[in-house]
Amino acid sequence: MWTETDSPVGKLRIVANGGAITAIEFSPYRPAPDGRPIGARTDDDPLLRRAVEQLRAYFAGELTDFDLPLAPSGTTWQLAVWEQLGKIGYGETASYGEIAARLGKSNAASRAVGLANGRNPIPIVIPCHRVIGANGTLTGYAGGVDRKQVLLDLERSDALF
């Protein structure tokens, strides 16, 4: 099942299955990677409503930590990377190399971290936008670098609200 919400980075589709959020997708939406249907639109489901409420609070600058059951689907490596992404605090960033080091790998694993980062099915909540290049530059983002910049600017502690 799924619902949709507006946000400063465009429409978002939130997908849930088995009592957990399984995906957040940026518009324009693509078919599910494995070809499975995502189910019916269900705007009144309590979990999906809670996800929409938390996303709206995040975009309003009122929420820094999400409290949602998550069930991302990925390889063991991807799941390990996504777990590390969840440890990057609101308003903080980490480089691909730093994430590799946290996983006990050398800087050579930075590319593998980047590939896993790009396949994160639950962006924003699993904050893949907080991963930047070693020199502090914005690098690729599955939702587009413009969206990444909006999300990082939203979290800046010195931003004027």
Describe the structure.
The strands form two sheets. A three-stranded antiparallel β-sheet has the order 1-2-3, with helices on one face. Strands 4-5 form a two-stranded parallel sheet. The protein starts with a strand and ends in a 6-residue tail after the last helix. It has helices spanning 46-59, 76-85, 96-102, 110-118, 145-155; strands spanning 2-5, 12-17, 20-26, 94-95, 131-132. The mean pLDDT is 90. The protein is globular and about 45 Å long. The protein is an alpha+beta fold and 161 residues long. 28% of the residues are buried. The chain folds into two domains: 2-59, no CATH class; 76-155, Orthogonal Bundle (Arc Repressor Mutant, subunit A). Helix 3 (96-102) packs across helix 4. It contains five helices and five strands; from the N terminus they run E-E-E-H-H-E-H-H-E-H. Strand 2 and strand 3 form a beta hairpin.
Key terms:
161 residues, alpha+beta, two-stranded parallel sheet, Arc Repressor Mutant, subunit A
